[in-house]
Amino acid sequence: MLSENEAKILFFLKDLKRTNSIEISTKIGIPESSVLSLIELLREKGYVKTEIISEKYYVLTEEGRKRKESGLPEDILINSLNGQEKDLNEIKNTLDEDFNIAISWAKRKGLIEIKEGKVIPKVKTYTSPEYLALSNLEKADINTINLLKKRGLIEEKERKIVNVELVKEPKESEIGISNLTREMIVSGEWKKYKLRKYNVEAFPPYYTISKKHYFREFLEKVKDIMISLGFKEINTGYIEMEFYNFDLLFQPQDHPAREIHDSFSVEGLGNIEDKELLSNVKEIHEKFWKYEWKQDITLRLMLRSQTTATTARVLASRPKAPQKVFTLGKVFRPDAIDATHLIEFHQLDGVIIDDNFTFRELLGVLKEIFYRLGIKEIKFKPAYFPFTEPSVEAYGYLEKLGWVEMCGAGLLRPEILSSVRIDSIAGAWGIGIERLAMSFLNISDIRLLYSNNIEYIRDMKVKIE
Amino acid sequence: MVTIVLNKYKLLDKIHIGQQKLEDLLFNLKSEVKPIDENNIEIEINADRLDLLSSDGIARAIKGLLEKELGEAKYNVTDTEYTLIVDNVRTRPYALAAVVYNAKIDLEELIQFQEKLHGTIGRKRKKVAIGIHDLRKVDSKTIEYKEVPLSYKFVPLYGNKELTISEILEKTEQGKLYGNISIANGVSPAIVQDDGEVLSIPPIINSNKTRLNENTKDFFIDVTGTSFEAVAQTLDIIVSNLAEAGGTIGRVKVLKSTNSSQLSSPLLLHRIQNVREEYVKKILGIKTSKEEICKHVMRMRMNCDIENGAIRVTVPQYRVDILNEIDVVEDIAISIGYNNLEPSKYISTNYGSYDYMTLLERKIRELGIGAGFVEISNFVLIKDEKLFSNKYVKILNPITEEYNAVRDSLIPGLLDFLSKNQHAKFPIRVFETGDVVVYDSSTDTGFRNDKRAAYAIMNNKVSYEEIQAPIHYILKSLGLEVNYKEENNNIFIEGRSASIFYENEKMGVIGEVNPDVLIRFGIEYPAVIAELYISEIGKRLINQR
């Protein structure tokens, strides 16, 4: 098998039969160093015979290049005198540093005489043979070359030249090519050649592959499950009033969770147009929790600490039953950040408002959500949340971790429903998503869900589900 | 969630069951058990079941589930000669007291019980504070609750010399922790004997005089606070649990010095809660009968009668969590056992629907991948110094300076990401979609979430077109023929930055990052960035549908 460049050399040789490496390089346009190794390959393959010879050649020195440009000093001297005598001093000024060289070579060549401080030329013009040789070193006779060497205008070098002789004619079918071109395909020329083999078992160079983020994909999967269960998606903002995060959800204002370090506060107050709703909530709080409910507390701004705030906003819009809505979004809670805690994480909250909804149906919905997430075994535990009664926590069985708490849920308290004039029964739940994602993605450190290491993200295996 | 630590053997001994059974029963009472060491267990109690904060309360509840005792627990109650005179105490006006005789207690557990009540119903002693004294060390039958000057002296609990209240505030742990709750106008609330000797300065500390020890059997209990109901409930819970430990509850006469009202405490408040059979069936979705309902109520240690076809539940003093009919329904469900309630088969009869923004975000994410960007996911919270605008949301109580603000653009997060990946294989091409928070005076909070997408490329050499081309064709794929207007800001290099417009509305920004900014983020390579306003784009696309 012949490479394209090997083939080029052989075809060049086909006409000439013999040539040398320098000629090949200049005619074909391949660097001399490459030519030498290509010839060696061809010799090994038995196409050519070679003979390596050393050749002396000359190159101009720095000074040689200068003289080739502007002439030799004695030439300049003679031509500037133009047959006239001149004072040595005057000549010294014009020739400057070349003065000595010009005078001595002109004298040595018998071109001038020096008398009483004056230079007397013997010829009117002069061009030295050395100067002519500088432009045409190959044609120069040996004496001139020696003279140039002596004057330091050229230096001798040696190079390897390979004489090449064709011993075996190449066949076109032996020529391999690396790259197909459009021309080859269109002209049918490709048929003449062989496509070279590669080392196909070698590993490829690095390649960046774009992919969706593993955790984002999990979040989208959760949304898909909720849609498939017939829920409508809604979203509300991160900045929330305590009213929707707490008060409407029957959490008293003097509850320890309201203290500054259990949620993130933001400067400013919100505004609630629905005065009836405000007074209903106030009434219920004061009746059941027995304290003085304050409007300026309820309007305080915070980063929502639960997506149940979104559910609260749904309730505040006084929806007509039946309703099935969900939200999946970020919530914020002050905590020490470590392998299992972040200060921001996702929650899935859902609510069903229906005349005939029951606690058993709530358990059924939860079971179905977890079943579709891939958790087949689930058990329920009584729980406490201010806004639900009965309240329940669901535990799912995970292969590696055993029983893990998955969510909090319950039927919304009648006090809440009455404050928004809903006569039906409503069930609601909140599911922390990060912990579920960790177990499904097989990640042991929650911070890796938000990794800022691109190699980790690039290397993450894609889940097919 | 509140946790208490109990001696396992003492608890098991009270109810005569094995540990596994205990754990199962407690699980169904909303509680979880974790072993601590050979002798002790930690139990998680839910904040509503204050009656379960001591081993006696737990024993009472478990005896019901085991049907060893049904209905309300019966305790001995007797009158005493003790009187509490309640003066006008401005910072915490309510006070009640009780006496308990002959209760067998575990001192450590009693102190824990008191502390857990302080933390829950007491709202860290702000709403309610409890003082428990050795009755035999109380010298007078008349006790006064009144304001005393800060120069008043007594030996505080575990102290060995007299201190003034001022000194207690300065020098003791409790003084520093709780002093600010009740001290005002140069006076402190105090429980004092009729000879003026201090028994306690609520909510700060008791006097060493009436200190409890392992052998204390008779107790004087004072409860003070800012809510009469909470004070009464707290006292009821404490005396009930001490009575469960064999004690006899002693009534104290409470006189208000400012008027002639008189009552005796503990109140041992009982409430009648009617429960409708149909309601129970409707809520739980089960078949049942009045008799069965009553049986479950009794198992939960409440009395239950059927009178003229109506179910009457008597809520005892220790069940302060029962506010309404629905709370009884939950107790019935707990008695049945949640896992005995078969979940209904879920049948969806309607189609769900995505938020339009979710659908748009998904398409934009797909186009980002198609354009060769790797998706990343950053935090919403960020260090304010990294933000470029000055109209961001600042957190008033950040937990760390690293996250003390809410991002108002995705660009700072991307730059942060680039700075951490300078040793990764180049080129770095990443994008993120997500919410930022911006001011919006038209909303009820004054803020609004804004959905964005941002793209960045970092390489040894990058140019404006390298980012402009993919962004242009992402937008074109969405059907938006946009144009670019040179617009300079403090993120990008002057003359190499534009705003992206569609029908004269700004849809995003794009440009080569200013070296000053790169240096600020510790980035040593050139980078180009674009940010798209998905919320704006979404508005256009919805209008065009």
UniProtKB/TrEMBL annotation, chain A:
<comment type="subunit">
    <text>Tetramer of two alpha and two beta subunits.</text>
</comment>
<dbReference type="InterPro" id="IPR011991">
    <property type="entry name" value="ArsR-like_HTH"/>
</dbReference>
<feature type="domain" description="Aminoacyl-transfer RNA synthetases class-II family profile">
    <location>
        <begin position="215"/>
        <end position="451"/>
    </location>
</feature>
<dbReference type="GO" id="GO:0000287">
    <property type="term" value="F:magnesium ion binding"/>
</dbReference>
<keyword id="KW-0067">ATP-binding</keyword>
<dbReference type="GO" id="GO:0006432">
    <property type="term" value="P:phenylalanyl-tRNA aminoacylation"/>
</dbReference>
<keyword id="KW-0547">Nucleotide-binding</keyword>
<keyword id="KW-0963">Cytoplasm</keyword>
<dbReference type="GO" id="GO:0005737">
    <property type="term" value="C:cytoplasm"/>
</dbReference>
<dbReference type="GO" id="GO:0004826">
    <property type="term" value="F:phenylalanine-tRNA ligase activity"/>
</dbReference>
<dbReference type="Pfam" id="PF01409">
    <property type="entry name" value="tRNA-synt_2d"/>
</dbReference>
<feature type="binding site">
    <location>
        <position position="389"/>
    </location>
    <ligand>
        <name>Mg(2+)</name>
    </ligand>
</feature>
<dbReference type="InterPro" id="IPR004529">
    <property type="entry name" value="Phe-tRNA-synth_IIc_asu"/>
</dbReference>
<feature type="binding site">
    <location>
        <position position="387"/>
    </location>
    <ligand>
        <name>L-phenylalanine</name>
    </ligand>
</feature>
<feature type="binding site">
    <location>
        <position position="308"/>
    </location>
    <ligand>
        <name>L-phenylalanine</name>
    </ligand>
</feature>
<dbReference type="GO" id="GO:0005524">
    <property type="term" value="F:ATP binding"/>
</dbReference>
<dbReference type="GO" id="GO:0000049">
    <property type="term" value="F:tRNA binding"/>
</dbReference>
<comment type="similarity">
    <text>Belongs to the class-II aminoacyl-tRNA synthetase family. Phe-tRNA synthetase alpha subunit type 2 subfamily.</text>
</comment>
<dbReference type="InterPro" id="IPR002319">
    <property type="entry name" value="Phenylalanyl-tRNA_Synthase"/>
</dbReference>
<keyword id="KW-0030">Aminoacyl-tRNA synthetase</keyword>
<keyword id="KW-0648">Protein biosynthesis</keyword>
<feature type="binding site">
    <location>
        <begin position="347"/>
        <end position="349"/>
    </location>
    <ligand>
        <name>L-phenylalanine</name>
    </ligand>
</feature>
Automatic annotation (TrEMBL), chain B:
<dbReference type="GO" id="GO:0005524">
    <property type="term" value="F:ATP binding"/>
</dbReference>
<dbReference type="InterPro" id="IPR004531">
    <property type="entry name" value="Phe-tRNA-synth_IIc_bsu_arc_euk"/>
</dbReference>
<dbReference type="InterPro" id="IPR022918">
    <property type="entry name" value="Phe_tRNA_ligase_beta2_arc"/>
</dbReference>
<dbReference type="Pfam" id="PF03484">
    <property type="entry name" value="B5"/>
</dbReference>
<dbReference type="Pfam" id="PF03483">
    <property type="entry name" value="B3_4"/>
</dbReference>
<dbReference type="Pfam" id="PF17759">
    <property type="entry name" value="tRNA_synthFbeta"/>
</dbReference>
<feature type="binding site">
    <location>
        <position position="330"/>
    </location>
    <ligand>
        <name>Mg(2+)</name>
    </ligand>
</feature>
<keyword id="KW-0547">Nucleotide-binding</keyword>
<keyword id="KW-0648">Protein biosynthesis</keyword>
<protein>
    <recommendedName>
        <fullName>Phenylalanine--tRNA ligase beta subunit</fullName>
        <ecNumber>6.1.1.20</ecNumber>
    </recommendedName>
</protein>
<keyword id="KW-0436">Ligase</keyword>
<dbReference type="GO" id="GO:0006432">
    <property type="term" value="P:phenylalanyl-tRNA aminoacylation"/>
</dbReference>
<comment type="subunit">
    <text>Tetramer of two alpha and two beta subunits.</text>
</comment>
<keyword id="KW-0030">Aminoacyl-tRNA synthetase</keyword>
<keyword id="KW-0067">ATP-binding</keyword>
<dbReference type="GO" id="GO:0009328">
    <property type="term" value="C:phenylalanine-tRNA ligase complex"/>
</dbReference>
<dbReference type="GO" id="GO:0004826">
    <property type="term" value="F:phenylalanine-tRNA ligase activity"/>
</dbReference>
<dbReference type="InterPro" id="IPR005147">
    <property type="entry name" value="tRNA_synthase_B5-dom"/>
</dbReference>
<feature type="binding site">
    <location>
        <position position="327"/>
    </location>
    <ligand>
        <name>Mg(2+)</name>
    </ligand>
</feature>
<dbReference type="InterPro" id="IPR045060">
    <property type="entry name" value="Phe-tRNA-ligase_IIc_bsu"/>
</dbReference>
<dbReference type="InterPro" id="IPR041616">
    <property type="entry name" value="PheRS_beta_core"/>
</dbReference>
<feature type="binding site">
    <location>
        <position position="321"/>
    </location>
    <ligand>
        <name>Mg(2+)</name>
    </ligand>
</feature>
